[in-house]
Amino acid sequence: MTNPAVEKLSTGEWSPERFRRHLAEASTPLVGPVRDGEVDVTFVDEPGDAAAVALAVVIGPRIGRNTVDEEFTAVPGTPFRVLTLRMRADLRLSYVFTRRDAAGREEQVPDPFNPPPRFAEYPEERFSGSSVAVLPDAAPLPWLAQAEAGPAPHSESAVLASAVLGNERRVWVSMPPGELAAGDALPFVVHLDGTPDHSAPSVRDALVRAGLVRPCAVVLVDALGSQRYRELLCDRGFSRMLVEELLPWLRERYSLSHDPADAALAGESFGGLCAAWTALHHPASFGNVVMQSPSCGYHPDIKWGNGIDLLGRAPVPMLIADFQAAARAPIRLFHDVGELEGSITHSRWLDEVLTGKGYDTRYLEFAGGHDYAWWRGLFADALRWCFPPAAEPRGTSPARSPR
């Protein structure tokens, strides 16, 4: 179905200048009315000399951006190209446009009429710098909106040298807003997918000011680029570094609690896998886990590819097997995953294991893919789960239920 504004452009009722004003007023993508839980979504590009334009979204079989087969079509007599797709009306998704020149060279760019939001830059190019579409029935993320609008919290940066791993990495520490009483030992969250401009401190500040979480420190740990793909895969050495080196190093510099119930370990994707695996094996150090779209299907003997293996036997994924085998550890787990990502089957499996073992856990599914557009906002739900106000019992802070 043609979007009404695009129809006015194509018939000449609107000039390109008038259409651009509409895009600025309405924001893109252009969204039609919701019918039966679905909506027509029109993406608009002004690609200049590009020979072709396609849409790439963070939903699909690939971890990262997946290209939609249908290309944009030109609006005759104008510099614009458009693509209209029918979508679930509750989606929130990151996306870019893939422009291809006559020589076949491709460039991925954000939507020129919907710039990437704050906190959209990441070390991994396959996620970084994306625009975000929020469709009409998408669950709101109010604390992310407040974080995006607020000032950047102060953080201190230092380099941690690890004798266990034989490397160095940068660590950023952000303390909560407000005055702290002398001798206060703060709860804290260590985030394994840290960057200097991560959204977590800003989300924390919004919640602290609203009185919805206890004042807590946020520690952001650099994942060292490609080393992330080795260190975060249930690596005993990396977990030892966190427990034996990072925690003492932090407590020498900051007044942080020694109670594992006041310590959370958080991560996204591989980082979520590592957070849960580390806490299971070191519950005296981390009593809370935040795993966002964890890669809990990982096993070192599972190989990915297109070959046919007639002798292979699928092992139980490592994190799931370890939780099955171990006695219930004194840890609490917050776990979110996208309905439209390939890892959801393993997340559901892990949740069944945790529930069956009697763990204190909060599990939710969101309408999207393997996507920072959700993780940034749902981190607020995780903090409320980990560190509710002192007068509010743990496990009672609001979080969305599974769909």
TrEMBL record:
Instruction: Write down the superkingdom of origin.
Output: Bacteria
Q: Name one Pfam family in it.
A: Esterase
Q: What InterPro entries does the record point to? A: AB_hydrolase_fold, Esterase-like, Ig-like_fold, Ig_E-set, Mycobacterial_A85_antigen
Tell me which PANTHER family the record gives.
Answer: ENTEROCHELIN ESTERASE-RELATED, IRON(III) ENTEROBACTIN ESTERASE
- Name of the featured protein: Esterase family protein
